[in-house]
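R.M. (postdoc): so does anyone remember the format we settled on? I'll just put the structure tokens first.
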């Protein structure tokens, strides 16, 4: 039953991803991207990572998509903006095929390292995903976490300053 759910969600995710690049309207492309984000959240739930699924929905399907839709509405992108850049489709398709074939080549020639992490499945189940993520974020990765928060603060202040000049 689980494999049937996986394949059906994977099919919806691939179709949604295809709609992201094929829709004429930027708003419809953004809605296809939201659907793809929800499919990724379902994959996280299937991997027994409910915290990551919730973060996927809140951050990406929520905040990031609101930001993208706001920019689309602000710029008023229409079909004519898409028509100007159709010459790049051939080059991007060629580059995508090269990346795909390169990935397949390295996956076929490579081998699994067999490296294991410090935590066992029993420790993860007993402690919990959320606590382990919090521990590593605020101990091992404290500096990158603080740099990211300062960067977001600077972006918010810059957006307020830019918006204030126009009012």
């Amino acid at each position: 039953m689980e494999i049937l759910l996986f394949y059906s969600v994977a099919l919806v995710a691939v179709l949604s991803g295809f709609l992201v690049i094929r829709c004429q309207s930027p708003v419809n492309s953004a809605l296809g991207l939201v659907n793809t984000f929800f499919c990724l959240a379902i994959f996280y739930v299937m991997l027994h990572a409910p915290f990551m699924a919730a973060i996927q929905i809140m951050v990406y399907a929520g905040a990031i998509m609101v930001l993208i839709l706001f920019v689309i509405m602000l710029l008023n992108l229409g079909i004519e903006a898409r028509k100007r850049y159709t010459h790049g489709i051939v080059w991007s398709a060629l580059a995508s095929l090269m990346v795909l074939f390169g990935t397949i080549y390295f996956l076929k020639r490579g081998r699994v390292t067999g490296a294991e992490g410090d935590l066992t499945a029993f420790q993860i189940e007993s402690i919990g995903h959320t606590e382990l993520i919090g521990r590593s974020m605020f101990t091992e990765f404290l500096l990158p976490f603080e740099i990211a928060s300062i960067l977001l603060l600077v972006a918010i202040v810059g957006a307020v300053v830019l918006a204030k000049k126009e009012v």
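R.M.: ...and that's the designed sequence above, right after the tokens. Also worth knowing: The longest helix spans residues 50-75. Residues 125-167 form one domain.
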